[in-house]
């Protein structure tokens, strides 16, 4: 039987294949990487992941290398620059949500040792939720977990993080392992977590 990787990664674009092979589903424990993937998932809403990967370098440059404290200080001039920047997705609601979320995180960090990454992992007791999808059609657009986290984030003031966006974000962070059963990367993600996770 021929081993089949996740179908969505086989669209003929190298950056999509590379993302699947080296990032998607591998556990993330870094705060700025968590925020980067939040930005990308917010920007992806209504668009293809291929579009986002094509603009990934543009996002990194436009959003100050994803430094949360820096983004939290953006003023009206910075916002206007973003909305005129052809290297990113120029959607006002998305840009405003990203800056607002950075400001909220900066406030939390100023008053406590809050970690968005740690908070998200706490919903699965710090252990990846490994799905048993057989085909891409089995994959969920959202789940009870993503709905719960979306509600809790909204209560805290985070914006543009509905259940579908959160589901994709959790998968990108490796909190949910959604590789299909025949994909060899699935086990690599499991092994990566076992090797790198520390309390």
From TrEMBL:
This protein's name: DNA-3-methyladenine glycosylase I
Signal sequence range: none
Keywords associated with the record: Glycosidase, Hydrolase
MF term (GO), any: DNA-3-methyladenine glycosylase activity
SUPFAM superfamilies registered for this protein in UniProt: DNA-glycosylase
Family matches, as InterPro entries: Adenine_glyco, DNA-3mA_glycosylase, DNA_glycosylase
EC numbers on record: 3.2.2.20
A Pfam family this chain is assigned to: Adenine_glyco
């Amino acid at each position: 039987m021929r081993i089949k990787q996740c179908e969505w990664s086989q669209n003929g674009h190298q950056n999509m294949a590379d993302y699947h092979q080296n990032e998607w589903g591998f556990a993330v424990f870094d705060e700025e990487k968590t925020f980067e993937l939040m930005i990308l998932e917010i920007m992806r809403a209504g668009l293809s992941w291929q579009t986002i990967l094509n603009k990934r370098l543009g996002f990194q440059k436009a959003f100050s290398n994803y430094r949360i404290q820096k983004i939290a200080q953006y003023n009206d001039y910075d916002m206007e620059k973003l909305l005129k920047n052809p290297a990113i997705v120029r959607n006002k609601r998305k840009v405003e949500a990203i800056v607002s979320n950075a400001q909220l995180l900066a406030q939390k960090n100023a008053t406590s040792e809050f970690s968005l990454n740690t908070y998200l992992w706490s919903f699965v007791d710090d252990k990846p939720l490994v799905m048993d999808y057989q085909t891409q059609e089995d994959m969920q657009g959202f789940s009870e977990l993503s709905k719960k986290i979306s509600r809790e984030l909204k209560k805290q003031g985070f914006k543009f993080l509905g259940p579908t966006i959160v589901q994709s974000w959790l998968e990108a962070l490796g909190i949910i392992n959604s590789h299909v059963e025949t994909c060899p990367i699935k086990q690599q993600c499991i092994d990566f977590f076992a090797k790198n996770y520390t309390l």
